[in-house]
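Reopening: structure tokens for the magnesium ion complex, inputs below.
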Amino acid sequence: MGLIERAGAVLEPESDGPNAAANDLAIVRPEAFDIDFGALAAHGYYNSADRSSRLSLELRAAKRALLRRTGLRNAAGERKLVRKGGRQRNLVLFTSARPGEGKTFCAINLALSLACEDDVEVLLVDADAPRPKVRALFGLGESRGLSDCLADPDLVPEGLFLKARQAPLCVLPEGRETGRPAELLAGPDAQRFFTALSTAAPGRLVLIDAPPMLATAEAAMLARHVDEVVFVVQAGETPAAAVASALDEVLEANQNVSLLLNRCLIGEAGSYYGSYEDYDRNAAPAGLSKGAGILRGSTDG
Ligand SMILES: Nc1ncnc2c1ncn2[C@@H]1O[C@H](COP(=O)(O)OP(=O)(O)OP(=O)(O)O)[C@@H](O)[C@H]1O
Ligand SMILES: [Mg+2]
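Re-run output (same inputs, fresh job):
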């Protein structure tokens, strides 16, 4: 049986019959990689071997809210039946007002936690063309990815996925530099691409790591293509005016926005992740009233 190398993945013919080598008969088998939990933990990320850590517990609260909002779980946390065909609410964008607020941190941690603990199939997409970080954090080399898919609608996205061996998690890297990320996201093929990502696997959550709202136009463009936006706010750092102005822009593009408060110190234990309850009680930035929800957690310090 012959193997055809294409699009960074291995395409495996369905049978050894006369047409076995034809591309349209090929099954795409994504390239596999090992998640180095030790290396991730050294950067403060989720570690599947330490599920009782404060971070794991706090991620659980955010996950529950996310699964409910995307319709994959009901309020009791039970898995909901997903329709076979058609669009689901499974595309989730992570953005923030300013750089460095923890978008990548939250997206990767939620992806790992969902895949490792809940057996939810996750696709993590690096859509931050100016500052892609997902590949480096997983120790992955350069390869084709999102930009290539947007530039060439004939590419099979699954062929560019990098698949973790230990959990149902795939990564779609940022792809090659095109110098025209905004143009590609505004093009007619972008919506088709994201719709195809959603429908290809209705039970799969697609977590998209985006640039900040106030630095580029791309985040707002991406927000138009997704079902849910998780707006990350760095506790005590981002001025309320910056949050309000960025939220205004997000809400113009997408009304389904949740806030995730990051790097929040609560109580004497000094939790360093998000307390969504706390955020609710304290002064919320202007703009919240326009329809943003809060990914509610159970942590109270
Ligand atoms: N809750 C947290 N606990 C510990 N470290 C954190 C936390 N949140 C973020 N960090 C660290 O802060 C730095 C910035 O975070 P991150 O890269 O996720 O921000 P970002 O919003 O994605 O930035 P950019 O806009 O540049 O993409 C990283 O080194 C990250 O590991
Ligand atoms: Mg980032």
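The longest strand covers residues 228-234. The two ends are 58 Å apart (CA to CA). Marking as resolved unless the reporter disagrees.
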